[in-house]
Amino acid sequence: MLRSKFKTIILALSVMMMAISLIAFPQESVDASIRGLNMWWEIVFPSLLPFFIVSEMLIGFGVVRFIGVLLEPLMRPLFNVPGVGGFVWAMGMASGFPAGAKLTARLRQEGQITKTEAERLVSFTNCSNPLFIFGAVSVGFFHNAKLGLILALAHYLGNLTVGIMMRFHGRNYETTKREKRGKPSLRYALSVLHRTRINDNRPLGKLLGDAVMSSIRTLLMIGGFIILFSVINKLLYHIGITSFLAVGLEILLGVFGLPTELSTPFISGIFEITLGSQLTSQVQEATLMQQAVITSFILAFSGFSVQAQVASILAQTDINFKPFFIGRIFQGFFAALYAALLWKPLYERFYNTEQPSNAIPVAFFGEGSWLLETFMIMTKAGPLITIFALLSYTILLAKRLEK
User: Is Protein biosynthesis found in the keyword set (predicted)?
Assistant: First the structure.
């Protein structure tokens, strides 16, 4: 009882402090809101919407269960999750945060995975997509496209390591019997696909409409969290909490031989990955390797902003958030370690040339590459896609309310 009252007081004081800060720093709050809104409608919404819609339709048509049967011999011994986890993992890497949580929650609602399997799966299937790592962070912030290879390898190896580690989660408590499956053959997989499509008897138009409505609702929630945490991060900086926390962090950074100037960007990255990565790239006192290590941790930890999005999605199911949070901490350390270990054998050996380390190389991931062009096109066309999708959502919602 006392603990509950203490929690109530802490939450009430936090909200009051935020309200007072909004009044004290109105211009900074508006700027932070606009920054978060621009990020959402230019990049996040148009990049995630197609993946969410297609994923919902693949689940409805039974394609996910078809893939699950074929991937069962790989995913079960490696991660101790069903084969459908392979689909979630692949879509999570391709589309980025928080697609892994969205799909895991959807599979749990469908009853295709148990609660424990869902907690294992969600702990390693949420990650940054390659477009964000190479386009936004490497080229946009560091002006060094080749750095993206180190960040991407460290990030996805960290995901893999967390997945293998979390395979032991809940092993002593899982009592739910696994679904009896046939031999993982193509014929059996096709049979499962057909049965799933028959059981979901929604017409194509209804299935597509449900996919659009569900995806846009989730993306609206994500947009709210992005704007909120963008404002919180800015307010914490202006009221001095970020600097206060950075003082204690400087001691820890000194133990690992990292410049104390990285403390403030690190704290910012704990709350929001984009701002943290950008501030890290601007620290002149740190070497490029040290910046890569800190950025790898920030990308892997994914920030409280993304974690709040995941918590909101998981709250719709019985999936516990704690394993996901623990996985983010471990992945942060794993990714930072991999970035440090891969630096000399990979970056310095193959990429270190006479040119300055922050120059943009003319290569596959360099200036004029398809990846950078895709990022630029998405930035320009993103708002139009977002507006069109929101108008479609409004029309569909109005028709459903009429019925």
Answer: no
